[in-house]
Design brief:
The strands form 5 sheets. Strands 1, 4, 5, 6, 8, 9, 10, 11 and 12 form a 9-stranded mixed β-sheet that branches. Helix 4 packs parallel to helix 6 and helix 6 crosses helix 9. Strand 9 and strand 10 form a beta hairpin. The chain folds into 2 domains: 260 residues, no CATH class; 121 residues, Conserved hypothetical protein from pyrococcus furiosus pfu- 392566-001, domain 2 (2-Layer Sandwich), CATH 3.30.1760. The chain is 30% helix and 24% strand. It is α+β, with helices and mostly antiparallel strands and 413 residues long. The protein contains 13 helices and 21 strands.
Length: 413
């Protein structure tokens, strides 16, 4: 089995992509999706968040929701809004956000290589979220939410993607958030073979976002394999929908922290405690960290620049040397008493896409006591954690721009 393979994608019909493309299912609440879909009968949110077409208050995890997803998919197929390519293809996919651009490959990635950790993970998954994706895949008999993957240095692949994305696109959509999504179909048999061989030569791929979707695909494959007495390994359920970008093009933004209180201390006492492990410098302007080991700290009306003591940064531990770990282990836990950031209600997380003014707002107006701005995790750090078969702390990465749902889906024949 190959690490990746082409597939006959299910895509919007020509000129229909703008009607179909939708944000990922997990970035909008049900109510936000309901508002977003007003007057948009062909939005893919009717498939990825089908509870919007059921009575308000419907539990999004009941059987009727998954049945509605399948019904809505059938409607889009019957109306010719979605059509399927007649032969296996790869697809070049470009994301453009302002001055940033990244071009990757839409492909079916091997479940077997996921299971053996050649497609490497860096997060724990929650069984309830896996269950939801399993039920969605089974109801649709398709994978509609792509897993975001990264590939290590591969100049041949970079060159092929540059060439493949130089002509007239097959779909070109600018979403409401300003992100441009552009798709080119790759049909040439020689190019398909070159891409498959180039990826087969890679030691690993890395999950950036989509751990629950890939885990669900693995569970679906295991169940179907067990039920199929003629299983060959070539069935489409042995692969999962992915978009694979060169790691050096991917953009990770900072994932910042806010806390409700100072653990019983006043500001002066808090700063004194911090100074045991960090240098503390007041700043007249907002502090956006410019290097690893540097942090911005905001108390009401005042920013500070923090730098952790160099001797506290472990050289050979890919998890403990992450900035999110350094802040947690040497400040948030020992000073603020928040030992479990996954469950403690005193901490919240703010994606860097919202900017530093959002941190000021959370402290000045929304009842938070303190905010921390972090230097963004680097792709090399993520890959080092995955290579070590370790797990990153919660809320370590915020990837932008995000993929759209609905532009290419993978049908399980």
């Amino acid at each position: 089995m190959s690490l990746i393979r082409p597939f006959a994608g299910l895509r919007p019909a020509p000129s229909r992509a703008a009607e179909v493309a939708a944000p990922p299912y997990d970035v909008l609440s049900t109510e936000e999706a309901r508002v977003r879909c007003a007057g948009k009968p062909w939005s893919f949110l009717h498939i990825s968040k089908p509870e919007i077409d059921l009575p308000v208050g419907t539990d999004p995890y009941v059987a009727e929701v998954y049945a509605k997803a399948a019904e809505n998919l059938d409607k889009m197929l019957a109306a010719g809004v979605l059509v399927r390519d007649d032969a296996p293809c790869y697809y070049a996919y470009r994301l453009t956000m302002g001055e940033h651009s990244q071009t990757g490959l839409v492909a079916a990635a091997s479940v077997a290589d996921y299971d053996t950790n050649r497609i490497r993970k860096h997060e724990f998954t929650r069984p309830d979220k896996e269950d939801d994706r399993v039920r969605q895949i089974d109801a649709l008999n398709a994978q509609t939410g792509p897993v975001l993957l990264a590939y290590p240095p591969a100049q041949q692949v970079d060159a092929i993607l540059i060439k493949a994305s130089s002509g007239t696109p097959d779909a070109d959509v600018t979403a409401e958030d300003g992100i441009r999504h552009t798709i080119w179909v790759i049909r040439d048999a020689a190019v398909l073979s070159q891409l498959t061989a180039a990826f087969d030569a890679m030691p690993a791929l890395y999950i950036a976002d989509g751990h629950h979707r890939s885990a669900a695909a693995s569970r679906v494959a295991a169940a179907r394999r067990a039920a199929n007495t003629k299983h060959s390994g070539e069935e489409s359920y042995n692969y999962f929908l992915s978009v694979i970008f060169p790691h050096h093009q991917m953009k990770i933004m900072d994932y910042n922290r806010v806390m409700t209180d100072l653990n019983g201390m006043d500001a002066a006492g808090f700063l004194k405690r911090i100074a045991e492990n960090f240098s503390v410098q007041p700043s007249a302007t907002a502090v956006k960290p410019s290097k690893p080991g540097e942090f911005g700290l905001y108390l009401p009306g005042q920013w500070y620049r923090l730098n952790i003591r160099a001797d506290l940064i472990p050289a050979n531990d890919p998890v403990a040397r992450l900035d999110v770990s350094l802040l947690q282990n040497h400040l948030i836990a020992p000073v603020l008493g928040i030992n479990d950031p996954r469950r403690d209600k005193r901490i919240d997380f703010v994606g860097g896409i919202r900017g530093l003014p959002e941190l000021e707002k959370r402290v000045n107006s929304d009842g938070m006591a303190v905010a921390f701005a972090l230097f963004a995790t680097r792709m090399e750090d993520l890959m080092a954690v995955a290579d070590a078969n370790e797990v990153m702390p919660p809320k370590s990465t915020w990837f932008e721009p995000k993929l759209a749902d609905g532009l290419v889906s993978h049908v399980l024949d």
